[in-house]
Amino acid sequence: MELLKIDCLGKQLRLEGSMAGWQQLFWDGQLVSQQAASADLGAIRLHQFELQAAPATIAVENTAIEQNGGLPNGEFAAPNTESASAAPHPQAAAPAQLQVRLETELNWQPFLLRYRLLVNDELLNSGERNSKDIEQQQPEITPVNTSKMSLVGLASLGFKLLKSAKVIKVLLAGASMAAYSWLFSVQFALALLACLVFHEYGHIRAMKYFGMKTKGIYLIPFLGGLALSDEKINTRWQDVVISIMGPTFGLLLSLVCVLAYWITGNIFFAGLATFNALLNLFNLLPILPLDGGHILKSISFSMNSIAGLVACIVGALIGVYVSYSFGLALLGFLLLIGSLEIVFEWKGRHQSHLLPLDRYGQLFSTAWYLLTVGCLVAIIWHFATSGDDMLALPLKILQS
Q1: How much is the average pLDDT of 344-353?
Q2: What predicted TM-score, i.e. pTM, was given to this entire model?
Q3: Could you list the residue range(s) of the whole structural domain that residue 163 is in?
Q4: C-alpha separations of 150 from 143, 145, 159, 163, 165 in Å
Q5: Is 264 in the same domain as 349?
């Protein structure tokens, strides 16, 4: 992930790294220093490289020095750019050597990066970055070149048209309304669309909270809804909040319907509360690309130790045991499958560009997730014991 991006002698200096400890330093897009993974993640890391200063030009020398367990020989051969030493003028002065040194001290949990940039032992820049800075940065993304007539290119173009054309929203909403009315009834279709929109609005509010530009809500027949944004997330915390806010808004809607049922006694509100709870509960299953898959993946992938993996496995087993103990066979089965998927991908967590959760973030996200799941199950269970066969249907689905 991108740790730092600052100006250095008129060019961009960018530092990338991972929780495994490796780091790469780029100056003007050129790799000038890199360091292999290190067990001592909190140590001060040092990157050094030489530049040639000439009138109106600065060139990278073929000496990039590594510290703290870099690659063998501690060298990197960078291509030379324009250099004054190549000028034909016989009286041209020898280019000045600039020794550039970047010192960093990095703590991952909670994230804090302190840095000092020195040129010929003179301080040029210094400061620190925290998780808020990472959330607001625009990550460096390499563009993907695709053939003009390739299926990937056509799909990308179609998706862009889908996101940009407002009329498509209306057409998809109309198609969803027609499909659900055909399967059920007009009243049920309207209620279901309202639940989907309210759920997706939770995602939209979370995106806007992080300052992300949104493309709105799209209702896809038989698949549910999508809340889209062109901007990329930079942290696991953003992934958790954006993912869980949809089910949280869904829970709030179910609670409002429960209150309306207690006040009016209208069975419609009871049905809306329980089926909306079932819809949001399925979204919280730990299976990608569902919301629950994103949440539990962010939590488990932020645990940078074997103890964290063990805790994830134990938590999953407890969830499966509790589900089967209460007769929720389907919920327990899907919880087991989703948890195994996350465990199998755990080794590749260091390859992600997302800043991991700190210990407080992991505990808070876990509590938020479990509380939301518990409340949704409680609503379904409450109405299943009312004696109405229709209201008992969501619980029967979970027990199937």
Answers
A1: 65
A2: 0.66
A3: 154-202+215-230
A4: 16, 11, 14, 20, 22
A5: yes
